[in-house]
Amino acid sequence: MSTRKKIPMRKCVVTGEMKPKKEMVRIVRSKEGDVSIDLTGKKSGRGAYVSLDKAAILAAQKKDSLARHLEVPIESSLYADLIDLAEKEKQ
After folding, report:
1. Mapping DSSP to helix (H, G, I), strand (E, B) and coil, where does residue 35 land?
2. What is the dihedral of CA 11, 16, 17, 22, to 10 degrees?
């Protein structure tokens, strides 16, 4: 019997598709209401996963899905950082 490791899957709050956790980025809102990009996936607080894909990030910004999911306004600088991250991942 092979012991294949289970790949953790997460659902993108923008596209609604399930993807491996490694292909996603977690955005977290702390108790204080600070929103940040959680690259480790271990920060405490309410989290939302977004596909590391420029189109998905732009759609999240347009639809305001992160703000609705995390229940706080999202700075446009956070979206800019996410797009930078997605661009770096592609290389």
Report:
1. strand
2. -40
pLDDT band (50, 70, 90) for residue 5: confident
d(CA 3, CA 54): 35
**pLDDT on residue 77:** 96
Q: Is 53 exposed, middle or buried (0-12, 13-18, 19+ CB in 10 A)?
A: buried
Q: How many CB atoms lie within 10 A of CB 8?
A: 10
Rounded to the nearest 5°, which phi and psi values hold at 30? -80, 170
In the structure encoding, which two tokens stand for residue 33, read together?
A: 């209401």
63: CB partners within 8 A, 6+ apart: 14
